[in-house]
Amino acid sequence: MARSPATTQYRLDPGREQAILSTVRDLLTEVGYDRLSIDEVARRARASKATIYRRWSGKPDMVSAALHGLMVEHPPLPDTGSLRGDLIAALDTFCRLYERKHPIVLSLLGAIRSDPALGRLLNDHVLATGTADVGIVFERAVGRGELLPGPNAAAVVEVCKALLWHRLLLTGHPLDEAWVAHVVDDILWPMLVSAGR
Fold first, then answer.
1. 35: burial class by Cβ within 10 Å (0-12, 13-18, 19+)?
2. Between vectors from CA 32 to CA 27 and to CA 33, what angle results, nearest 5°?
3. CA dihedral defined by 195, 71, 111, 99, rounded to 10 degrees?
4. Helix (H, G, I), strand (E, B) or coil at 79
5. Is 152 left (phi over 0), alpha (psi -120 to 50) or beta?
6. Do 126 and 177 sit in the same domain of this protein?
7. How many CB atoms are located within 10 Å of the residue 50 CB?
8. Do 61 and 82 share a domain, yes or no?
C-alpha cells in the first residue's frame, strides 16, 4: 500500500523538507518528471541522497509529497456568511492552487500513463485533498440552516476537480470570476439543493 506523504519512517526538519519539496516542484516545471533525478534534487537542495531516500521511498513518493504540499498549503477558507459566498471563495481558492500546479501536472501526464504506481500515489495524496475543507463549509451552512445535514463533500470536490482539469487541460479558458460563479450557481447549487430534497 502506498505510504502517505505525511507518514514516513524518517522525519526531516520541516524547513529542510520544504526546501527539498520546493526544489522538486521547480524541477518538475523546468525539466518534467522523466528528466527529474534524485541526484539533481539533492544537488540543488544541498541535501544528501541518503537523506532523501530515508524520507521518501523513491521519485514517485517524493513527487506526490511535493504536489500534496502544494495543495494543502493555503489559508483557511473564509466564512463569508452565506453558502453561496463560501462556495465561490472556496472554488476561487482551489482555482488559484490549480493554476500554480498546472505546469507541473502537464509534466506528469505522460509519466502517469506509463507508471500506474505514480498515478495511484497522486490520486491518494493529491486528488483526494480538499474534502475536509469543503466539509467545513458545509458544516457552517448546516449550522446557518442553509443546508440539510449530510451533504456529500467528496462528491462535490470530485465534480469541481473534474471541471477544473477539463477547463485547464482541454479548453485553455481562464479560471476567472465568471466561470467560478457559473460553476457554483449552475452546477454545485442544483446538486446541493437536489440532495436535500
1. exposed
2. 95
3. 90
4. coil
5. beta
6. yes
7. 9
8. no
* Amino acid at residue number 51: T
33, 48, 65: which is the final residue of a domain? Answer: 65
Contact 88, 160 (CB under 8 A): no
Grid cell 505525511 is found at 6
**Tell me, what's the pLDDT at 128?**
59
**169 near 107, Cβ under 8 Å?**
no
Residue with cell 446541493: 192
List average pLDDT for each run of 10 residues in the chain, which is 197 residues long: 46 87 91 92 95 91 82 77 96 86 78 80 68 90 92 91 88 93 96 73
Domain that holds residue 27: 14-65
Residue 161 has a pLDDT of 87
